[in-house]
């Protein structure tokens, strides 16, 4: 009797889930029409006043039917983010029809299961065309694969909240002809992966990418005397553990990636910081045009003259044009001891007047200057609802 009652409830839940999916699909079609209207009338993608009003109304309605305000807020943050990204993607496709390919050949670090593989899947899920994955063993190989037309795009990790900037990638950007056309932030959840049940104390060798070891240094210190062996990628580390089938070896990588190699996660969230995210950039042979309705970011590289205050003078140009800088990274110039190349990320569209004015000034006052890319911002900050807390009282 109890089983029959439970089964009936599960059937009702399944029907409700089907209705939810149909409703979400209907909403997505409507947001597509919204994007078409914004393209036609040159309206900005985001209207955070409208978003806040929407959230306040939904929180109130949710309370009336017994839903927790925090749950409603979290749910619609996800829905709004999806809507914004879909609209941005449509506008970008319309502005760059030549970039819409029937097949997207994408190079990334490692093989299936690596974090770069997961980021590639995430980014190109919103792009039209079939995805062809091309795993590579190193960052120079990835760049060369796109430059030689063996791939159309590359996905490269550029920085991590735990281990900081990935210098190898910055050094590649200094010399490549490729342009940055996109970015994404992907959550990184490092897990300890084994082939069979084993106690942590019996593990003698640990395989992972060097960046992973850096991000999990506190966990490694807790393990004590254990041999660490760096691999080209997390997928390569998982493959080694899969092939060895030994109770004395383990890998660090994503839980989902581990399943692809028949590995079991025995401990997760190993990074030094609980909130561990990596930012990836997407590069291609040709730059793209970002519609002015879409929030944009521009990455540039420059070297200044060797005189006191030269860098400060250059950065003052950004301030004078009301351009916000989000990243400043320096790397040594090969062959020029004690000289630095500066990488700068700013919020702004290269087609916009203040950005064009700033770029013109920087070209005149620096020894070397180059735009590495202008691309849509894909980190959609959730709209804050100032009255949300009062609604719960």
Automatic annotation (TrEMBL):
<feature type="domain" description="Prephenate dehydratase">
    <location>
        <begin position="105"/>
        <end position="285"/>
    </location>
</feature>
<dbReference type="Pfam" id="PF00800">
    <property type="entry name" value="PDT"/>
</dbReference>
<dbReference type="Pfam" id="PF01817">
    <property type="entry name" value="CM_2"/>
</dbReference>
<keyword id="KW-0057">Aromatic amino acid biosynthesis</keyword>
<comment type="pathway">
    <text>Amino-acid biosynthesis; L-phenylalanine biosynthesis; phenylpyruvate from prephenate: step 1/1.</text>
</comment>
<dbReference type="GO" id="GO:0009094">
    <property type="term" value="P:L-phenylalanine biosynthetic process"/>
</dbReference>
<feature type="binding site">
    <location>
        <position position="27"/>
    </location>
    <ligand>
        <name>substrate</name>
    </ligand>
</feature>
<keyword id="KW-0028">Amino-acid biosynthesis</keyword>
<feature type="binding site">
    <location>
        <position position="87"/>
    </location>
    <ligand>
        <name>substrate</name>
    </ligand>
</feature>
<keyword id="KW-0511">Multifunctional enzyme</keyword>
<dbReference type="InterPro" id="IPR002701">
    <property type="entry name" value="CM_II_prokaryot"/>
</dbReference>
<feature type="domain" description="ACT">
    <location>
        <begin position="299"/>
        <end position="376"/>
    </location>
</feature>
<dbReference type="InterPro" id="IPR018528">
    <property type="entry name" value="Preph_deHydtase_CS"/>
</dbReference>
<dbReference type="InterPro" id="IPR045865">
    <property type="entry name" value="ACT-like_dom_sf"/>
</dbReference>
<dbReference type="InterPro" id="IPR036979">
    <property type="entry name" value="CM_dom_sf"/>
</dbReference>
<feature type="binding site">
    <location>
        <position position="51"/>
    </location>
    <ligand>
        <name>substrate</name>
    </ligand>
</feature>
<keyword id="KW-0413">Isomerase</keyword>
<keyword id="KW-0963">Cytoplasm</keyword>
<dbReference type="InterPro" id="IPR008242">
    <property type="entry name" value="Chor_mutase/pphenate_deHydtase"/>
</dbReference>
<feature type="domain" description="Chorismate mutase">
    <location>
        <begin position="1"/>
        <end position="91"/>
    </location>
</feature>
<keyword id="KW-0584">Phenylalanine biosynthesis</keyword>
<protein>
    <recommendedName>
        <fullName>Bifunctional chorismate mutase/prephenate dehydratase</fullName>
        <ecNumber>4.2.1.51</ecNumber>
        <ecNumber>5.4.99.5</ecNumber>
    </recommendedName>
</protein>
<dbReference type="GO" id="GO:0046417">
    <property type="term" value="P:chorismate metabolic process"/>
</dbReference>
<feature type="binding site">
    <location>
        <position position="10"/>
    </location>
    <ligand>
        <name>substrate</name>
    </ligand>
</feature>
<comment type="pathway">
    <text>Metabolic intermediate biosynthesis; prephenate biosynthesis; prephenate from chorismate: step 1/1.</text>
</comment>
<keyword id="KW-0456">Lyase</keyword>
<dbReference type="GO" id="GO:0004664">
    <property type="term" value="F:prephenate dehydratase activity"/>
</dbReference>
<dbReference type="InterPro" id="IPR036263">
    <property type="entry name" value="Chorismate_II_sf"/>
</dbReference>
<dbReference type="InterPro" id="IPR001086">
    <property type="entry name" value="Preph_deHydtase"/>
</dbReference>
<comment type="function">
    <text>Catalyzes the Claisen rearrangement of chorismate to prephenate and the decarboxylation/dehydration of prephenate to phenylpyruvate.</text>
</comment>
<dbReference type="InterPro" id="IPR002912">
    <property type="entry name" value="ACT_dom"/>
</dbReference>
<dbReference type="GO" id="GO:0005737">
    <property type="term" value="C:cytoplasm"/>
</dbReference>
<feature type="binding site">
    <location>
        <position position="83"/>
    </location>
    <ligand>
        <name>substrate</name>
    </ligand>
</feature>
<dbReference type="GO" id="GO:0004106">
    <property type="term" value="F:chorismate mutase activity"/>
</dbReference>
<feature type="binding site">
    <location>
        <position position="47"/>
    </location>
    <ligand>
        <name>substrate</name>
    </ligand>
</feature>
<feature type="binding site">
    <location>
        <position position="38"/>
    </location>
    <ligand>
        <name>substrate</name>
    </ligand>
</feature>
């Amino acid at each position: 009797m109890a089983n029959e009652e439970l089964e009936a409830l599960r059937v009702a839940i399944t029907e409700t889930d089907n209705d939810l999916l149909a409703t979400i699909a209907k909403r997505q079609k409507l947001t597509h029409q919204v994007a078409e209207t914004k393209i036609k009338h040159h309206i900005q993608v985001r209207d955070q006043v409208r978003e806040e009003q929407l959230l306040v109304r939904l929180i109130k309605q949710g309370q009336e039917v017994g839903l927790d305000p925090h749950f409603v807020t979290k749910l619609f943050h996800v829905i709004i983010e999806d809507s914004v990204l879909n609209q941005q993607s449509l506008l970008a496709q319309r502005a760059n029809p030549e970039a819409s390919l029937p097949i997207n050949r994408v190079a990334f670090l490692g093989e299936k299961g690596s974090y770069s593989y997961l980021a590639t899947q995430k980014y190109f899920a919103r792009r039209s065309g079939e995805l062809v994955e091309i795993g590579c063993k190193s960052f120079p190989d990835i760049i060369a694969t796109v430059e030689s037309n063996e791939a159309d795009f590359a996905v490269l990790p550029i920085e991590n909240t735990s281990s900081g900037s990935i210098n190898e990638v910055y050094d590649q950007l200094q010399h490549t002809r490729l342009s940055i056309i996109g970015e994404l932030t992907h959550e990184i959840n490092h897990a300890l992966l084994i082939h069979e049940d084993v106690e942590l104390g019996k593990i003698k060798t640990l395989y992972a990418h060097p960046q992973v070891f850096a991000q999990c240094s506190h966990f490694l210190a807790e393990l004590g005397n254990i041999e660490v062996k760096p691999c080209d990628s997390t997928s390569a580390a998982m493959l080694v553990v899969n092939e060895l089938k030994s109770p004395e070896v383990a890998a660090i990588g994503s839980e989902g990636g581990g399943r692809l190699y028949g590995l079991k996660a025995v401990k997760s969230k190993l990074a030094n910081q609980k909130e561990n995210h990596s930012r990836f950039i997407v590069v291609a042979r040709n730059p793209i045009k970002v519609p002015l309705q879409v929030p944009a970011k521009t990455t540039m590289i420059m070297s200044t003259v060797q005189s006191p205050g030269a860098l400060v003078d250059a950065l003052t140009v950004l301030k004078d044009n009301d351009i916000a800088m989000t990243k400043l990274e320096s790397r040594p110039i090969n062959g020029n001891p004690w000289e630095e190349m500066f990488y700068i990320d700013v919020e702004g569209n290269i087609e916009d007047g203040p950005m064009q004015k700033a770029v013109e000034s920087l070209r005149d006052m620096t020894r070397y200057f180059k735009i590495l890319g202008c691309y849509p911002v894909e980190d959609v900050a959730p709209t804050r609802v100032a009255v949300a807390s009062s609604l719960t009282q």
